[in-house]
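Lecture 7 notes: from sequence to structure.

We start with a single chain of 217 residues. Read the sequence below before looking at the structure.
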Amino acid sequence: MNERSTTIVQGSEIADYPEIPPQARRGRALRVTEIGEDVLHRRCRDVTDFGTDELTTLVDDMFATMLVAEGVGLAANQVDVDLRLFVYDLTDSDGVRYVGHVANPDVEVLDLETEENEEGCLSVPGPGADLFRALHVRLRGVDIAGAPVEMTAHGYLARCFQHETDHLNGRLYVDLLSKRVRKRVLRDMEDMREEVLDRRDEVSAVHGKEPAIYSGR
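Now the structure, written as tokens:
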């Protein structure tokens, strides 16, 4: 008999969580901003207005965008919104699924241990590169109602939290690479971008979403 898989939503275990989060079902698929756009290269503004319909809609749209783009995390500036907010939906190597959102995140590295794994980014469509990240972190922030959020993360989840918080500080993963590797990644992106965007259109159709419009197509 297969054991029931574990899903952690906003830091709490949830039984019978759907494969597609309800936010993703409600939301619209938005255009993912791409490297070079100003909103990706500066620190985002803190969220100060909580419990609003606008913030709820933004989270819904970010989950839908992440679903269509087949990502595991997405920051608000990746949908052209200048706010310190990210969403995530990933399954780690132990089969535990983590789903949630965090506003005004702060990541604390808990020890010196690091791990190298391939990392990619929806705003650098296509390629990835190996990158060292801290293996253990603590995430602190608030949810869209303003309630405190605190989670300790290890491995893949820790990498996601660091990657998305970096986004909100105006830093992409390619900024952490050597010049040679960064140049290779950007060259590969040029070759792979159209294929990636075609795939997003296909996934949009599968989920009944209007595909986002990207320049140069």
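The first helix runs from residue 22 to 26. Keep this in mind for problem set 3.
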